[in-house]
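Ligand: calcium ion. Inputs:
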Amino acid sequence: AKRNGRNTFAGFEPGMDTDLKARRELDADLAQAVERGELSLAFQPRVGLKCGSFVSYETLARWHHPKRGEIKPSLFIPIAEQSGKINEIGNWVIREACRQSLDKLGGAPISVNVSGHQLRTRDFVENVLAILEDVGFPPDRFEIELTESILVEDRDRALTVLKALKRRGIRLALDDFGTGYSSLSYLRAFPFDTIKIDRSFIMNLATDKSSLAIAEAVMDLGRALNLSVVAEGVETVEQLTILASRHCDEVQGYLFSQPLPADKVAHEVDKNLAR
Ligand code: C2E
Ligand code: CA
Ligand code: CA
Ligand code: CA
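Predicted complex:
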């Protein structure tokens, strides 16, 4: 596009100007969202298939915007990453997740999503440990979920940080497995405890042979490397049956519970497991 001033530019790409404006507004609003108490957490159970009961909860950030209502994390997390606000939000998520687990979930193990920007912050490891210690949450009940792209961006640094977290007892999960770069060498080099098979493979498990083959390969890999394998996005009994027959370690998805506030989620799990 030629830069003939703002109007020409906007006319050349309709919608761009308003998108940009909306984004700037959200960015400005997000800057105060934590202080104003607009963020909250939803917890989704990860259910162990061997014990047939919940193993832990994944923590997912929610933003209730005073004017626009619920804003999806897939929209506001990237904005927070760009503005650098992700560190404050990320710290809030970690602290609040631990606190709510202790207060409302009997101190159940939890996992939180961490973005590359957080991992690259100076003193990330010390910062996380300080929060856990302050709240009184045991590190071995705390798991960090990371996507592969984070590892690719700065491999050496990521490796150093993950090893340091691991030494301090924090667990590590490789999220959205199969969607990113999926270099198997990451599984060997990085000290993961858990692999999460991306929802896109689970979605078509019953109908698509290649999705099933990939899911099976990941489960075999998990066994061989002594990692716990979690299937994400399990919505049907059929999917569950397939995963259980292949000895998947854990399952997570709407079949068991949507992500819910802490005081609602424990009840939901009991109800659905009783069926
Ligand atoms: P993710 O880590 O892959 O989280 C799983 C997403 O799948 C969640 O979307 C969850 O609500 C959804 N989900 C769970 N079970 C099912 C199912 O059975 N069917 C379907 N269709 N969806 C299911 P959500 O909560 O909108 O989060 C989207 C993404 O935003 C997350 O993907 C994660 O990458 C990011 N995110 C969320 N909270 C945080 C956070 O506190 N920090 C960071 N850095 N990222 C976050
Ligand atoms: Ca995740
Ligand atoms: Ca995921
Ligand atoms: Ca995802």
